[in-house]
Amino acid sequence: MSDVIVVGETSVDEYCDVGLTPREMVDMLKQMLEIRRFEERVERLFLVEGELIGPCHLYLGQEAIAVGVIKALTNEDIVVSTYRGHGHALARGVSMEMLMGELYGREIGTCKGLGGSMHSAMYVKKNILMATAIVGSGIPIAAGIALGLKYKNSDNIVTCFFGDGAATTGAFHEGINMAAVLKLPVLYVCENNQYAYSLPFSKSFAAGNVAEFASGYGLRSYFVYGNDVISVYRASREAVEEVRKHKSPVFIECRTYRQKGHGVYDRALYRPKEEVDEWLRNDPVMKFSRRLVELGVLTEEELKNIDEDVKEKVEKAVEIARKAKVLEFGELFKYLYSSR
Amino acid sequence: MSDVIVVGETSVDEYCDVGLTPREMVDMLKQMLEIRRFEERVERLFLVEGELIGPCHLYLGQEAIAVGVIKALTNEDIVVSTYRGHGHALARGVSMEMLMGELYGREIGTCKGLGGSMHSAMYVKKNILMATAIVGSGIPIAAGIALGLKYKNSDNIVTCFFGDGAATTGAFHEGINMAAVLKLPVLYVCENNQYAYSLPFSKSFAAGNVAEFASGYGLRSYFVYGNDVISVYRASREAVEEVRKHKSPVFIECRTYRQKGHGVYDRALYRPKEEVDEWLRNDPVMKFSRRLVELGVLTEEELKNIDEDVKEKVEKAVEIARKAKVLEFGELFKYLYSSR
Amino acid sequence: MSRMITYAEALNEALREEMRRDENVIVFGEDVAVIGGAYRVTKGLLEEFGSRRVLDTPISEAAIVGMAVGAALIGLRPVAEIMYLDFLTLGMDQLVTHAAKARFMSGGQVKLPLVVRTQYSLGRVHASQHSQFLAPWFLNVPGLKVVLPSTPYDAKGLLKSSIRDDDPVLFIESGVLYSTKGQVPADEYLVPLGRADVKKTGDDVTIVAVSRTVIEALKAAEKLMEEGINAEVIDPRTINPMDWDTILNSVRKTNRLVVVDDGHKTGSISAEIAAKVVEEAFDSLEGPIIRVNSPDIPVPSSQPLEKTFMVSAEKIVEAVLKII
Amino acid sequence: MSRMITYAEALNEALREEMRRDENVIVFGEDVAVIGGAYRVTKGLLEEFGSRRVLDTPISEAAIVGMAVGAALIGLRPVAEIMYLDFLTLGMDQLVTHAAKARFMSGGQVKLPLVVRTQYSLGRVHASQHSQFLAPWFLNVPGLKVVLPSTPYDAKGLLKSSIRDDDPVLFIESGVLYSTKGQVPADEYLVPLGRADVKKTGDDVTIVAVSRTVIEALKAAEKLMEEGINAEVIDPRTINPMDWDTILNSVRKTNRLVVVDDGHKTGSISAEIAAKVVEEAFDSLEGPIIRVNSPDIPVPSSQPLEKTFMVSAEKIVEAVLKII
Ligand SMILES: Cc1ncc(C[n+]2csc(CCOP(=O)(O)OP(=O)(O)O)c2C)c(N)n1
Ligand SMILES: Cc1ncc(C[n+]2csc(CCOP(=O)(O)OP(=O)(O)O)c2C)c(N)n1
Ligand SMILES: [Mg+2]
Ligand SMILES: [Mg+2]
């Protein structure tokens, strides 16, 4: 990987050099826990309570990426998300009620119930301008947003999340080449969880990794251990600076693992047990909380309290969403056109 | 270009080591002349006589590629061509009358007049199974043909021609990745004439060359001086062997130059004069004929005779095409479906 | 002998039988091999026919359809799966500009015996980007054949015919119908392309319905019966080519027509059927032709809203009552 | 004050005026900058507005449309060119599944003021892959607006309105009309979207025609005049949303309808118009509605065959005579 900047796991000793205050690190852990507990609850709402239905793609196991990348952005930077977007939304500070409300199809939802889980991360007030359910399609859209930012001489950049499966779409190639040729300020973040639905990465993509392939477009490209939030943050901070300064695209591949099935109903029996176990042992939330305790930034007790708070918050969101009302059908026609 | 096999111009001294008989070399020159004189005549039929109309893309300047690559194939190997396909068809031995007939929209045409210039190279009897006018679209189609060949345990391979502009299409990425992942016997030949219509290669593609980018898919990849038919042949022979043996895709980029406009009506004033002149000085037909004379394989006199014969042949094709009849409109409905 | 099996099982049987019968039939697409398809229509094919004939592909819809074009050109009979009809928007160039035209534009030099199988998910809370019923577009693509089965029996017989057909076939399944059951003969049979099926005979009004809405139309016909109205329900099954004779003959008999499909109303399949009938059988018509369709807005995700959005037996009954 | 200018020049003026008026308007696409477009519609824009606002892109139709979506989301008013309507098959996902739905599926959070300009080349010996009239597909895509001008005047006024519109607009030009001339005011004007134009008034029959076929319909009306038949010719100009009132009122007056467009007959724009009229104005109709379209085969390249293939004034006259 000659052309690629590799960022492996960050040792605890290095934590102090990262430039994050203890407070910031605890907040990052809290966000990761919010995603974790939210998704676990959603899973139960589908599989146990049977209260939610339809497609839903959990972010479990990838928490370090959303939190690490988004921590490196300003609130004004734009985000393009996907159908696996709950994590991006929560890391951006979208309220749990609204997110849960969207899953319940309620008017209080981020998209008033019209988008559902797959588009629930689309929330303009938090500068998430798109959550697409078409694999790869966010990549050229992000290029267009970047074109606009550059045109307006804005200092903001756009960050576009997508999976390893997206790397085999035409949109990936056209979009990244376009961004590279036109020099557009986009940070492309490939969350390589090693599966595109049932297809393992090795059978999906002809190159050994996405980062190196992307460097073929002449981009600066990072290959990052994606289960370590601090590693993700370090790489992202550097990458974001680069994008902002040079107004050119930069690429990050984060290696991670989808802890659950592709969608909430998928039991994912196609994966080798050892592989799953290996990655579960490297769970990003456990890893980070252990480190913070080790580092003395947090006590076990405090950790437990945070977790309890988060769980309560999730439960409250469920309560609110459950009781919220659905939009009137007649209202839908208002959302078709802006003008008539 | 670490991962790429570079094949520069072949010196006359090396000609004897290539493994071609003098006779074969003279035949190759004759084919190049056939393309040259055919295209020059076609250009006049459009611009001077005004007898032909519609889109038409001349192969002038690229003759070494069609002839060099196709010489390395057997007649049973499949070819996928494009709208700039007259050269491929003639190098494959498609009759001039039929090709010219197609340009005239006559029933004797390769496609019975239904395809016109842009599809005229599609001639199944010579195993040219597609001539697409949609940039890049032949690339996945070639993968499918290769899938079929491999499935049938055939020793034949498929060769797919396309331009530098095709390298920026989604079809390029999806098609080559597919061929690489499924290990399909395709030879991909990018004729990089340095322009996609008015767009110079440097503004079209983020990477410095297509060959190196393609090696990112894990393919063996060649970067070849495309105005030397012997260089093209040498690289192709090696590449074809590789594809045939390993049943995997191989990539060749031939650097060349479009001597005329994009289409026959385009005066291409957007190109620097020095650039055009430089490449005209390296005209592939002149280059090869001078070498063969130098080598003593051919006298100036014989060369002139061959050229006269070719011109006569072209003129005869024009005569025949002119007089040929157009299909009855009612017949068209027969060609819609194979079955009903 | 016949058994009750699901629509998905019927499709699976069709694939199996045709793969056994003809070595040239191969199957590829996203997630079709190892897990047997997102909706299990290709389940077990990998086990029976091996990885040479059943291939998982990357997420590359344009290349999947393009590969089908190439494989057909060289003599195979590829059956490519596009997981959702929505994703076919990414393969339109290959399907419309290549598969449907290669034969014609080459003056008949080639044939393209390929099938693109896909499904539309309206009715499964999949939201705007996964619920599109894009079938009407393909009415306007000469060179393609387009099939939309509504029952397990038709699904099996039509898929078998599609695979044997020498022309490119777009085979659109209904996601909500996968789990519906119906009688399917144990012995081999085919349902020919281009022939409509009269699902119920009647004299008072003709209801032409497509895919999922056939089920709703039949429910509507039952309710109408209670009110003494005897509706004829016709399922075209193939919309390209359409079996105009069956439709026109029915309208000539009943003199009244309601057309139904799951698409947005404007530019729908129903529009074409209405236009053709008014062109060819104007004198038989005793009232306007009413279309029952989805409204002209994208599909909302929220379940109750999606339900209101969709064509239902009630809406069909209402339409019939308007013209009777 | 008005001048005779070409359809292409009128479009060029529209772009220039809107770019002068609004900094947020930018233009990009293949070959639009340095050479001013394959058909010179964007000629001179690079010189006047510079390379920040007028960009040549690689051959990447999906990314071109996708980039327009993104640019619109962030507040620009991009005008993207797709060189041929045929190539829009490569950008369908972005146009149909993203541009047309983003506002709805987000519960109205965003607006997408983008224009995709393209042209269809039927009539220019471009063969099957470069002559498709795919406009009918977009009737069935709620969330898009679709415009097809037939005169230089309309071309300019409609393009200006499209650029100012806050919703995604697909603007389909006719390649054969680029060189046609017409009166265009020197002063600024707009032609509103969603309003049909009565190109000629008449009482005996209504002819609704779209884009290039409007010219043929007007020629047909002249010929019919010689035979004492006074036809009304309506150009919808915007097919989505369609100005139904104008069409329905005309049919209610003339009681007869012929519908014309350059698409294949089955699934055409004409089908929708016929279906709507029969649904809403059945009682006014005194005869069948006849459609005049291209036949249901791809476009042949050979010039005489293409000519026979296409809609002509003669074919329209013939259709009118059938129902009068
Ligand atoms: C273009 C397209 N093809 C197929 C699908 C169906 N699908 C949804 S997600 C998915 C897998 C995507 O894998 P990846 O990009 O790795 O993201 P992940 O789901 O692992 O986060 C597939 C095949 C789709 N939504 N869009
Ligand atoms: C998908 C697509 N986009 C645009 C065009 C219009 N067009 C035809 S050829 C061409 C340039 C192609 O350049 P390249 O691939 O380098 O091939 P060359 O013409 O130089 O042989 C363009 C833009 C097309 N035919 N197909
Ligand atoms: Mg993945
Ligand atoms: Mg080129």
Please tell me about this protein's structure:
The complex is a heterotetramer, with two copies of chain A (340 residues) and two copies of chain C (324 residues). By secondary structure, chain A is an alpha/beta fold. Helices cover 43% and strands 13% of the residues of chain A. Chain A has helices at residues 22-47, 63-71, 86-91, 96-103, 138-151, 170-181, 201-204, 210-215, 229-246, 273-281, 284-294, 300-323; strands spanning 4-7, 78-82, 128-132, 158-163, 186-192, 195-196, 199-200, 220-225, 250-255. In chain A, strands 1-8-9-5-4-2-3 form a seven-stranded parallel beta sheet, with helices on both faces. Chain A has a two-stranded antiparallel ribbon with strand order 6-7. The radius of gyration of chain A is 19 Å and the shape is globular. With 324 residues, chain C is α/β, with parallel strands linked by helices. Chain C has eleven helices and 14 strands. The chains are: A alpha/beta (340), C alpha/beta (324). Chains B and C meet through strand 3, helix 5 and helix 6 of B and helix 3, helix 4 and helix 5 of C. One magnesium ion binds next to strand 6 of chain A.
Element string of chain C (H = helix, E = strand): EHEHEHEHHEEHEEEEHEEHEHEHH
Sheet with the most strands of chain A?
7 strands, parallel
Q: Output the CATH topology of the largest domain in chain C.
A: Rossmann fold
Q: Count all strands of chain A and give the number.
A: 9
Which ranges of chain C are low-confidence, i.e. pLDDT below 50, for 5 or more consecutive residues?
Answer: none
H-E order of chain A:
EHHEHHEHEHEEEHHEHEHHH
Tell me the number of structural domains of chain C. Answer: 2
In the CATH hierarchy, what is the superfamily of the largest domain in chain C?
Thiamin diphosphate (ThDP)-binding fold, Pyr/PP domains
